[in-house]
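Ticket reopened. Same input as before:
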Amino acid sequence: MRRFELSLPRSIDDCLAILAEHGGDAKVVAGGTDLLPQLKNGVVKPPRVVDLSGIPALRRLERANGDGLRIGAAVTARAIERDAHVQSVYPALAESGALIGSLQVRNLATVGGNLCNAAPSADMAPPLLALDADALIVGPGGQRRVPLAAFFVDVRRTVLAPDELLLEFAVPAPGPRSGGQYLRHTPRRELDIAVVGVASQIVLTDGVCGKARIALASVAPTPVRALAAEAVLVGQPITPALIERAAELAVESARPISDQRGSAEFRRHLVRVLTRRTLTTAFDRARAGRPEA
Amino acid sequence: MPRQILRCTVNDEAVEVLVQPYQTLLDALREDLGLTGPKEGCGTGDCGACTVHLDGEPVASCLVLALQARDHDVRTIEGLGQGALHPLQDAFVRHGVPQCGFCIPGVLMAAAAVLNQKARPTEEEIRYGIAGNLCRCTGYTKMVAAISEAAASMQEGTLR
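Engineering reply: fixed in the latest deploy. New output:
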């Protein structure tokens, strides 16, 4: 591995001071499962790396005053996958955490790392996007709150400035009559990267769809919402025909490329199929309801 | 570039060792502590040959910076049996699981983590638990049989 200096901050203030001095030359490491391979193969060559593992505040996963969820940037995929409250109220998020890498990777990989790495295929991005999560970012000028839809700038680029740190994601409570699911297609079940990933999250209001969110991965430079598909669902009673119509519209929000994982045509097909499946499950889960949420 | 002191616990022993800031935990274990059980297969977290337990959970030590293990508890295959062969190792020997043997330390640590979670895992749970470990000799069938048998013998042991 290329040589670099390593900073070991013990608090968020420590970390901000280091980033203020070295931010332009530094890469932040949380779990390291994306960054270490990039350091080893020379994709990134930072003179300095700043390790977040000494900052316990970033590993908090907790309910926010009974309304929603706060997920520290350094909470691991495994912690999200195994959290009973996340499994029950935010199943799409738990499902995405369970799909990342292998067990050996999920015990290291963090939600903040997954999103800051900003791969178009990031598995935890579509559920968080569909759950209307905000990113809480801290920098020299204080905190700012960025809706996830505005967090990604391009492939591997986010709104984070070099002297800023991602603190946590704030996820609003989806409500008792809500449901969601994340599915992805991969040629093999373990240790693979999504050819396409789709998260659907819906709310039922008086028997019709009150709110719908559909988020797609691996079909554009950044994770994207399928806005036209969401709009066709709202205010309507849910039928298989309507779900099929939404799935067709979701394809229009995809701008896939052809690469070694799949052709653009195959990816459009997958968007339709996975949107249909995740919406169907999301509605089933919403109908079943959850008394505790 | 100055080396830094890594203080942690490795196989129940307090350890202090000078490491480079850019050194991985895997390299520190192998090169500085002489624990060559964990192997570097891919170096990118895909193969599981470098699996060790960090605070009891299996991780790819090729993706951990050595200094990220500071103040943490590390266990390698050398510390699995604590003097004698662990029931998993014993079962692997009796079933003749190792072929080339390169993946085996990682598989054993993954298997130990499975049994830490659940005393009697199903075959599906065993296969899922070692899904992050690649065996290019493709010796998975015997692995699953040996892990299953070890689980049974360990549970009987606790009942006696």
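Residues 4-79 of chain B form a domain with the Ubiquitin-like (UB roll) fold (CATH 3.10.20.30). The mean pLDDT of chain B is 95. Please confirm and we'll close it.
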